[in-house]
Specification:
alpha+beta
Length: about 80
């Protein structure tokens, strides 16, 4: 996982929306072991579509990783990269 300074340097050139920043902050603070989209929705006041879109964009930027949830193989958990 990137340090705070490395993350700020990497995010400097990328334009993140408010929802993407909030989701990334939650993943970096609470999501060390991984967090599901449903758990993210419980913590933010965004619409489910907004959270899914933010996760998809963060995956594309390689700021988060998606791994299978071993407790429920139908869903994925997201961890900071």
């Amino acid at each position: 996982m990137l340090s705070k300074e490395e993350l700020e340097n990497e995010l400097e050139g990328k334009k993140l929306t408010k929802s993407q920043r909030v989701v990334l902050d939650i993943l970096r603070t609470d999501g060390k072991d991984g967090i599901t989209p449903k758990q993210l929705l419980d913590e933010v006041s965004f619409a489910p579509r907004t959270v899914r879109y933010a996760l998809r964009k963060l995956l594309k930027m390689k700021l988060v990783k998606r791994v299978p949830c071993l407790q429920d193989m139908r869903q994925f958990i997201y961890v900071p990269a």
